[in-house]
Amino acid sequence: MANTEYVKNGALRDDALKGRTIIITGGGTGLGKAMSTYFLQLGANVVITSRNFDVLKNTALELESLTGGSVLPLSCDVRNPEEIDEVLKQSIEHYGTIHGLVNNAAGNFISPTERLSPNAFSTIIDIVLKGTVNCTLALGKHWINEKQPGTVLNIITTYAYTGSAYVVPSACAKGGVLALTRSLAVEWGKYGIRTNAIAPGPFPTKGAWDRLLPGEMAEKFDFKNRVPLKRTGEHQELANLSAFLMSDFSGYINGEVITIDGGEWLQGAGQFNGLESITPHMWDNLEKLIRMKKGSE
Ligand code: HXC
Ligand code: NAP
Questions:
Q1: Domain ranges (residues) in the chain
Q2: Architecture of domain 5-262 in CATH?
Q3: In the predicted model, is pLDDT for residue 11 greater than 60?
Q4: How, if at all, do strands 100-103 and 21-25 pair?
Q5: Which residues have CB under 6 Å of ligand 2?
Q6: Which of 101, 85, 10, 83 is nearest to 47 (CA)?
Q7: pLDDT exceeding 90 applies to what percent of the chain?
Q8: Closest by Cα among 30, 33, 29, 65 to 46
Q9: Out of 73-77, 91-95, 275-279, least confident range
Q10: Interacting residues of 74 by C-beta distance below 8 A, sequence separation 6+
Q11: Which residue in 168, 85, 154, 156 sits closest to 122, CA to CA?
């Protein structure tokens, strides 16, 4: 039976992020927008960035009217360190202190690796790995110079652990972000900077679905069937986890990666997980065969 009893509401108390200012890359769409919404509901100011200013501006207006909070939309390509410095400068001018960074911006598409040009490969590495490095470096240097604590949250994927065919640049880049997360958690812990990651399983968004499940792929490769809980993730479930990791309630969590995937990646990993398709009648026969072997060696 499918697990359909799931939370669609916020999990944290109302003031969990009160007075905080958090920069969220890719905050105008998809999961970035969901996290921004919940951070605002918990009392934070949010700075949302991406390349498309019109999208950011519309999201900012929508979220301010929905939550009553304050959103600063700033266009910025995470591949360009100068644009990130400008975001930092304007965010400080606007809000004074920056408390957190969510590295959520990403680029991805499915493709057999042998069809990729060097530029296609590096485009994904540049956005996902180097973009995350660029933002983290800018904020980290700022916090260290100002002797301020900070919190970094990196959005990775479960195939950062396993690798994955057909999204190889993304797998390489997200694997690098995982290494960055664990490395900086140790190196920057002494400055009061916590670094953690979330590895989401499938959470339907237009950005991901358009590039990973185009056309008939959405039906042929229905993610629900790959997940032991037989459903995809709710955006609020990811928002709840990210808010917890950005809040002081997770103050002793540093260098951790939390998987939120309904058990999907482990389903693919366990050697005998495929036995799901065996019927009770077949199990009766198998059990008999196994028991008959007792003492026959
Ligand atoms: C092969 C491709 C290609 C494709 C682009 N390229 N699409 N190669 N197959 N389908 C090649 C181009 O030909 C070019 O190489 C190079 O990649 C760069 O392409 P541009 O279009 O110039 O790049 P750019 O405008 O910077 O756009 C980046 C992008 C695009 C990644 C290609 O898709 C994008 O903007 N994505 C942002 C949002 C996104 O991807 N969201 C999904 C995240 S989902 P040449 O050699 O021709 O110059 C995710 C989670 C996964 O990460 C897990 C889900 C379960
Ligand atoms: P999405 O809506 O496409 O989000 C990606 C965001 O990144 C967009 O807002 C995009 O905006 C921004 N972006 C892309 N390239 C950028 C660049 N060079 N500079 C600045 N911003 C850039 O997809 P999503 O599903 O919400 O993905 C959000 C995060 O979750 C990603 O890190 C993704 O890898 C991760 N994730 C998602 C899933 C899922 O099932 N949805 C699963 C695992 C992990 P612009 O194009 O306007 O710049």
A1: 5-262
A2: 3-Layer(aba) Sandwich (3.40)
A3: yes
A4: parallel
A5: 25-26, 28-32, 50-52, 55, 77-79, 104-107, 127, 131, 155, 157, 200, 202-203, 205, 207-208
A6: 101
A7: 89
A8: 33
A9: 275-279
A10: 47, 48, 49, 56, 86, 87, 90, 91
A11: 168
Q: Phi/psi at 199 (nearest 5 deg)?
A: -110, 95
Dump the DSSP string for 193-239. EEEEEEEE-----HHHHHHHSTTTHHHHT-GGGGSTTSSPPPHHHHH
Residues with catalytic function: 159
Strand partners of residue 239: none
User: What backbone phi and psi angles, to 5 degrees, belong to 73?
Assistant: -90, 130
Between CA 157 and CA 165, with CA 163 as vertex, the angle to 5 degrees is 110
Sign of CA dihedral 103, 178, 226, 212: positive
- The Cα–Cα gap between 38 and 236 comes to 8
Nearest C-alpha neighbor of 124 from the set 209, 59, 211: 211
Q: Which residue has the tokens 């989401």?
A: 200
